[in-house]
Amino acid sequence: MTSSRTLPRPVVVIAPDSFKGSLSAEQVASAIGAGIQAAIPNAEIRLKPIADGGEGTLDALLHAGGQRLDVRCRNAAGQPMQAPVGLLDNGSAVIESASIVGLTDTDGTAVTVDQRSTLGIGDALLAVLEHDVSQVLVALGGSSTNDGGAGLLVALGARLLDAEGCEVPPLPSQLHRVASVDASAIDARVAKVKLVAMSDVDNPLCGEHGATAVFGPQKGVLPEQVATLDAALGHFAEVLERALGRHAKDLPGAGAAGGLGYALLMLGGHFQSGAETVADHIGLDDALAGAHWMITGEGRSDAQTLHGKAPFIASQRARRAGVETTLLSGGIDRKSLDRLQGSFAGCFSIVFGPTRLEDAIADAPQLLQASAEQIARLWHTR
Predict the structure, then answer these.
(1) Do residues 82 and 179 share a domain?
(2) Mean pLDDT rounded to a whole number for the chain
(3) Is residue 2 pLDDT above 80, yes or no?
(4) Quick check: 29 and 364 in contact, CB under 8 A?
(5) How many CB atoms lie within 10 A of CB 113?
(6) Domain-embedded: residue 278
């Protein structure tokens, strides 16, 4: 790469993910940008907040243009709430699972995981369909549910029935009772819109690599519940697939968001990498054209970062454009450095010494700006 000293105006692309529960990707990008500007006043800064299908995806997509709406829906516990959705300038809508049935929602997670459902995702889907959209992007990361998307289907008009023809609530604890599914009343508009499930998860619905076994414990599934809830999902899938004449439980991504991915596949949807989809929409490749350096990051980076997470996807695109990438995250797993530095030209944490997590979170904007300034001074004087 040409030495930055010969460049009259260095062009720096800043494409970080959010610091979950602390700063949005836009706030992270702005703080890093301020640090770069302090070190290199004449730098052209191109802010491109990114996400990978989890918390912050809605913000990242709307940063590129669109309208935020608050819609009435239900949280994971079935209680009424207001949640944000997005209407993008290209005619697509965005629903973020983490904003509706998220792990960080204390009201929604006040009930045990076997009593949570995705009814609210269906509510939000019906709400955005009122705006005549051609495509609905559903960001699957960060969900607290494990209902196989049964709630989504019921909210859209499906009926789950037991052997006596009585309705069964779409809860994990009740799915074993489902004897038939009446899908005749599912809103007809669903079949006319392109459904895209955004995730970096490729797990099937059931089994040792499925939704319950792999992701259930972080949502509150107890070890003794795994087999029972997994079997209930498998039973529900058999009945649903018989009713719809479609098979999806073993497809990659069916296990995403506790099986919400499965329900979207059964509705005719398809999977896309969350980070790749966001990168396309925000025009990351265009921003990299003519750039000299890119900074990306996330709350904590480790070996999992290299499995489709936003910073890795950003670095891959930068590499194709001939732009070197530096990783600046809240924390870096030291044991993963050997692997991380294969994709990044330097991996840095924002903390300057031993720091309590709560202090690092509170001071994150200032830490980001200060760290970015110091890294930029080093980069610019090579």
Answers:
(1) yes
(2) 94
(3) no
(4) no
(5) 25
(6) no
